[in-house]
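Form 12-C: Joint structure prediction
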Amino acid sequence: MSQTKVLLVDDEVEFASALAERLQLRNYYVHTANNALEALGLVYKDRPDVVILDLRIPGMDGIETLKTIKKYDPSIEVIMLTGHGDVQSVQEGMTSGAFEYIMKPVDIGELTSKIDKAQKKRKEG
Amino acid sequence: MENKGERDLRLLQLRFIGKILAGFTHESKNYIAIVKESAGLIGDMIQLGEKAGDGSQAYLEIIHSIEEQIEKATDLFRHLNRFSHRMDTELCTFNVNETLEELIALLTRVARQKKIKLEKDFQQDIPSINNNPSLLQLLVFHFLEEQFTRLDKDSSLMLKTSLSNGSVIVQIIAKGNYLEAESEKGLSNNEIDDYIIDQLRGIIVKDNDLISISLPVSLS
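Section 2 - Result
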């Protein structure tokens, strides 16, 4: 079975790198980006299956980044990563085409389950 | 009944505290998230049979990262605690550099989101002043907040302190480009800033890139 290609976007370098390593240990193929520009570069270059996107990343609003990704390739599924206070952004993200959202700190089991569901939807779509 | 100045001041204070708390909780959550992922990674490496590369080096590096995050979080808690106590008494003797340092620490996340660098250049030997530290933080915050909305990304804002003619000078210096819509407008003239500086018995001089606040060493 081919590995799910995940792009993890978060400006907290250490958080992104630890979470990426945990996902890699669970057999996901993971790239990380720490700002919107870097993330979009990797989306165009590597075309990930699933993007895990922090809503508050420097350089471009997370929602704008989400819209840009969905406009480029609507089949890429985006899971938003958010703090508890971002309810409005989460709602806006869901209406802008996000597949799901997950709260920080992340539960790894919940995250992998959402990634797998996103990948399943992508394959079925 | 409160006059307009007092009412505007309360509203600005509430917005200020809200902004500081939002930044603080977000930043704290990030530290906790990193600690959680790092601890989870150690657990994964043990459970999923991942061998630590060179002896226990991989584990030690992760533990070191956890310790670093806890130290950063502790620093942030200390800054918030001191910030909260600034409001205990209206007038006290305080060190302007420490007061501004605290503000920088608590607004770093807001600045980072805007891709604006917050810098400092403090004269170390300025005397402590007798004034209202909380109002000074509020005034500086109000100017920083306006500059955050005017400046384009990759700009910087420097807080500079010095002593001149017996007064402590706090300067907010903007470096970089302004957003197109903002470049013509210049800094706004807010009545509330004049109200606050009156309370501090200081003087403000504003230019586009430079805001200078002059404060007496003592109010008496």
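Section 3 - Comments
Chain B has two domains: 4-85, 92-216. The mean pLDDT of chain B is 90.
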